[in-house]
Design brief:
Strand content: 25-35%
Strand order of the largest sheet: 1-16-15-12
Structural class: alpha+beta
Radius of gyration: 19 Å
Helix content: 10-25%
Number of domains: 2
Number of helices: 4
Number of strands: 18
Largest sheet: 4 strands, mixed
Distance between the termini: 26 Å
Length: 319
């Protein structure tokens, strides 16, 4: 079966090993504003469009190594699989750009995979990683005509266990998203309490899919989807719009045969400590989210990146 990962609900993510983990647990998600079908299906109708509606991408090639790509300390792409990239790969990154100005890109390079999720001990001398930051407008800019704003090549020294490389690029976007920038620094909180709270939210989300509670799912992700839709300019009337978003969630819920929470995970910090997520930490599912679902054709992983809007507030889904 296919294995898919995406932060956007409509191009869902996934894998599963069935285990009916239906723990009710304590609901630490707080009061969630209930969203109606009409509200959810109106997300694309509320976005603003401009003369130029750019989508920023990182385009990259990786040879004899595995990697993680971070934009503003948010995990944007990763691979711990065997083989080299087949030509230049790309990852869309506008959901991690909250406003115009300097943006940070961080690359973590790890040894080549012997098999998916199992790495060699040291980096090879021939390991290489290069990337470009480009932008263009989908539907208007030809793929090869995207404007390049930065390029990088990670200096890799063979024999190291891992390498981290940081640099910056400038982005100009016609919107501002609040995102996690005003959130609480979660690195100062007790990690055990954060794990408990984050796990409860993931369990609620998985349970909502299991019982096809579409209102609950839509309500939990509504604010995230609004911000992401604006950053991608998913206009009403276009194929990727949310005009029938509620119905897409319903269809996906109907297709899911099994859904569970993985037991092999770590609490990871992102967004300079303001965002946390439960991600798997070993084997071929390393860096994949803990919620795993299975349909007839796909394994799906549901990513929930959480922040705390203010002191004392519950964690909320932000990406």
């Amino acid at each position: 079966m296919n294995k898919k990962l995406s932060l956007l609900l409509f191009s869902m993510l996934a894998f599963l090993t069935s285990s009916g983990q239906d723990k009710q647990g304590k609901d630490t998600g707080g009061q969630i504003q209930q969203i109606s079908r009409e509200q959810y299906n109106s997300i694309s109708k509320e976005i603003k469009t401009f003369k130029y509606n750019p989508t920023y991408q990182v385009r990259f090639t990786a040879q004899f190594c595995t990697y993680e790509i971070y934009i503003n300390d948010m995990l944007a792409n990763f691979s711990f699989t065997t083989g080299n990239s087949a030509g230049e790969q790309h990852a869309d990154i506008p959901q991690y750009i909250l406003q115009s100005g300097p943006q940070e890109i961080k690359i973590k390079i790890y040894p080549k995979a012997i098999q998916d999720g199992k790495l060699e001990d040291k980096l090879r001398q021939e390991a290489a990683f290069s990337a470009r930051i480009v932008h263009g407008e989908y539907g208007k800019t030809d793929w090869d005509s995207f404007t390049q704003v930065a390029a990088l090549k990670v200096p890799i020294k063979g024999g190291e266990n891992a390498i981290e490389y940081k640099t910056s690029f400038n982005a100009q976007v016609p919107y501002q998203s609040e995102g996690w920038k005003n959130g609480i620094d979660l690195s100062k909180e007790q990690k055990t309490d954060l794990i408990k709270e984050a796990l409860s939210i993931n369990q609620q989300f998985a349970r909502a899919y299991r019982y096809k509670d579409i209102e609950r799912i839509a309500s939990m992700i509504y604010n995230r989807e609004k911000e992401v839709t604006q950053s991608f300019f998913f206009r009403s009337g276009e194929p990727k719009s949310y005009d029938d978003g509620w119905e897409k969630i319903q269809k996906e819920a109907d297709e899911i045969q099994k859904i569970k929470i993985s037991v092999q995970y770590d609490l990871r910090y992102f967004g300079n400590g303001k965002v946390v997520a439960l991600l798997q930490h070993q084997g071929e599912d390393r860096d994949f989210p803990v919620i795993e679902a299975e349909t007839n054709e796909d394994y799906i992983y549901y990513a929930l990146y959480l922040y705390r809007p203010k002191a004392g507030a519950p964690l909320k889904i932000i990406r």
